[in-house]
Fold this sequence. Notes:
The protein is built from 1 helix and 12 strands. It is mainly β. The strands form 3 sheets. It has an 8-stranded antiparallel barrel with strand order 1-2-3-6-7-8-9-12. The radius of gyration is 21 Å and the shape is elongated.
Amino acid sequence: MMFIALCLSLLSTASADNNGIEVSLEGGLMETSGSKWDLFSDGALITTGVRAGKRLAENTSVTLGWRHAAVGSTLVIGDEEIIYDDYGYEEPDGPYLGIVLDQYSLGAKHTWTVKPWFQPYVTGEAILSVGHFLMDDDPDKEGNSNEIRRGAVAPGGAATVGMDVLSFGKDARWRVALFVESGYQTGFALKFVDRTQKNDIPVGDLPLQGVVTRFGLSAQF
Length: 221
């Protein structure tokens, strides 16, 4: 709710006679580095998100963003039995491991107008990552007593290079743009800890660093 309120605050401060506001819907890929991520996924995380920006200077905007990713897999240990469902698909009979990741960002975007319809840019962001870890030996059972859920928070940052391809009519009140950007993200690892015991017990940690690629559609007004 706080993030939505901040975005609405940006929109409410826009003047009616300039293109000082940008709202973007994005998809993306986030590289996962380290063998620990192999327990959850064989490749990059697929992300979705939204970003809002308010121009503070001629070519520079402040941005707020939110991105979400979720991934999981069934862990096969040794010669774990393989079960076939009614459709003949193989289902490993092992515990389910999952990660839900939300990232909140505050940053800046600097743009160069090469053509009215083509604008390369760079971004820099401070990121707060909030992760939730799930391990469940019977995910089909609601309220399984053996289910383990733990959360972790980690700060980080990212920098990207990208480009906007805009609709014509630079003096129009509304403009639509397609964008793509790529860069690198780094930061502290998510450290999951079991705090339900008398002494905190480390569950594990996941690094958050690697190449990020984002693409999507934005409205500028």
